[in-house]
Each structure stands twice: as structure tokens, then as C-alpha cells.
């Protein structure tokens, strides 16, 4: 029996690949271990314009719409994790319909059923925040890759959960993005098409900003949404809205401690230094520093396993117009900073081995990445 003959309250035909991509765009924002099953659900809604998929876990709302041949209006809530797993295995034209307390998915020779969740358990998604301007998907990806990398992953760090977020200042002259975890600080400034003549501040969780950058990658125009404690992005038929972290407690005074750019920095090839740091970590003991011994024309990257049984030293060419200096760094922080620069050459500004180390690019004045050295061995 076909969908047309059944005429259930939710039924549609859709390209399986298109459906899988839409499910993925929503499911990636759902919690891995929801405190209630409905918080991990995806709401499917059929309408005259196609199929709308949405999810809301109380903090993050994601929504996307796709073209589909629908047979009357209807909606149903199912597990996002199961739906993503099943749709990822489908090929060709897919058929989706509700049969009582289950949803049937079929494509080719694949047939699968999912249990229906109670719609009454789903909290209503927040209203769309106001539009305040427009960025490109490339700009959003730049902020995520260069600034979100520096945010904390520990919600208890300094009793400041806001350190898990990127502090965004949207102003008439551009966007300033700040990420920090107490040991490093990244700041970037980017252009945008401002739709406001005043500054608007938001703190967006870094992990969700990174996911949003993936969702809107390649988009020519992404609308920035912000007000009422919410921040988000929208482009075409896709949107993501997130509850902000507390901006009042964000430690912006840390910016005053950011290392200054030296007039005579150490210049080094990024690929060579990255290779040396990665090789050193093969023998390096956890929570121990990589040691950078910097001379006039050569830097030596060294590390040990903590027992005295294994160690390594790797030379890296550099240009240092200042005095010889030795600095101890967290290797992962250094690797993140070098990767975020996005350039072939890095400049290292070191005023004192015990003071913050600044990574910059000779071709970019808008991005700065400061890392605290490791002072004790």
C-alpha cells in the first residue's frame, strides 16, 4: 500500500541524501546524553512548502527546511540520534510516514521504524531574535577557527562558565571576537555588514560557534541574530539560536595583560615549528613543557619523558634580532596558536621568559594569540 492510499497524518517522499543532510544539520546540536528523551528529539513537520526539521534542548534551537513531496500537514517527534543513524544509510528516494506509534522510513531495500515521542514533552523553541547584521560563512569560520580554539572546556574553570564562550562585540565598525581560558587569549577583528549603529555584546559557547561555522560554511550571507539573551545565525532555510553565556562576568580586563607585539620579533617558519613540536610530543611526558631555546638563527625544540630515560631535541631555523632566550610552553597551546595564524610564517614576541608569549602573523594585524609560559618544571 502506498502513502497516497494511506493518507496518514504525516507522510512524504524526499531524496534520501537531502534528508540525511538536513537531519545532520539539526542533530549535531542535540545533547549526546539528554536529561529527558524529548531534549534529544527532532521534530518533523510536513507542510505545503516541504519538510521542516527542528530540535531544542532548552539552550540551543536548530531548524532547517527542505523540499519534499508531502501528503497533507502533520508533525511527529523522534529520536535525533536514531534518525541520523538511519537516514545516513538510505539511498535514492526515501519514503517517510507515521504508522500509529511508529515512524516508517524506507528507501531501496532498507526499511526501518522509529518510536514516536510525546509532543507534549517538547519545550517550545524561543522566538527568533532580531537581526543585527550580516557576515559571510567564511568570516564565521574564521572566528571559530582562530578564537574559539582558545576557550575553556572546563565549566568549573575559575567558577566562570562564560570562559567556555567566545565574547563577541558587534559594532558599526566590525566584530571583535575574544576567546580565553585563563592560560591563553585570542583576539580577532573581522568586517561585517552592520545592521545596527550601536555595539551589541554576546557570549556564545565556543563549541556551538564552531558547529554553526560548519553549518553555514560557504554561505554568501549569514544573518546575525541577537537579543533577549539569545544569539544565533540564519541563512536560507537554516537557523541556529543559542542561549548566551553571562557576558557581565566575562574577564575582559585580561585584554590589558595581552603581550605586546615586539618591534623585533622572532620569525620562524610555521610548518617547521609545528613539525618539531609534534615530534617532541611523541616522547614528552603529560603536563610537561616543550622547551624553546632561541638563538640568533636557530631554535631548538626539546622535551623529555619525565623519567630521564627518553628525550629529544630538534633544530628549527629562525631569525632572532634580539638576545638569546629560553621559554617553556604548553605544546598544544603553541600548536593551536600556530594553526590559527593561517600563515606560512609566524612572529613570536617574547619580552621575558616568564611573561606571556605572543603569536602573530607578519601579514595580519587583526589577530593576536597570547599563551602563558610554563614557569615550573
Which key features would you list for this structure?
377 residues; DNA Polymerase III, Chain A, domain 2; twelve-stranded antiparallel β-sheet; 7 helices; alpha+beta; nine-stranded antiparallel β-sheet; 18% helix; single chain
Give a verbal description of the structure.
The structure is a single chain. This protein has 377 residues and is α+β, with helices and mostly antiparallel strands. The chain folds into three domains: 3-121, DNA Polymerase III, subunit A, domain 2 (DNA Polymerase III, Chain A, domain 2), CATH 3.10.150; 131-257, DNA Polymerase III, subunit A, domain 2 (DNA Polymerase III, Chain A, domain 2, Roll); 266-371, Roll (DNA Polymerase III, Chain A, domain 2). The chain has helices at 3-6, 16-27, 80-87, 137-146, 206-215, 270-280, 331-341, and strands at residues 11-15, 41-47, 50-56, 60-66, 69-70, 74-79, 93-99, 102-107, 110-115, 131-135, 165-171, 174-180, 184-190, 193-194, 200-205, 222-227, 230-235, 238-243, 266-269, 290-294, 298-304, 311-319, 325-329, 345-349, 357-361, 364-371. The chain has a twelve-stranded antiparallel beta sheet. A hairpin with a 3-residue loop joins strand 20 (290-294) and strand 21 (298-304). The longest helix has 12 residues, at 16-27. The radius of gyration is 25 Å and the shape is elongated. The N and C termini lie far apart (73 Å).
What is the fold's blueprint, element by element?
Elements: H1 3-6, E1 11-15, H2 16-27, E2 41-47, E3 50-56, E4 60-66, E5 69-70, E6 74-79, H3 80-87, E7 93-99, E8 102-107, E9 110-115, E10 131-135, H4 137-146, E11 165-171, E12 174-180, E13 184-190, E14 193-194, E15 200-205, H5 206-215, E16 222-227, E17 230-235, E18 238-243, E19 266-269, H6 270-280, E20 290-294, E21 298-304, E22 311-319, E23 325-329, H7 331-341, E24 345-349, E25 357-361, E26 364-371
Antiparallel strand pairs: 1-5, 1-7, 2-3, 2-6, 3-4, 4-18, 7-8, 8-9, 10-14, 10-16, 11-12, 11-15, 12-13, 13-26, 16-17, 17-18, 19-22, 19-24, 20-21, 20-23, 21-22, 24-25, 25-26
Helix pairs in contact: 2-3, 4-5, 6-7
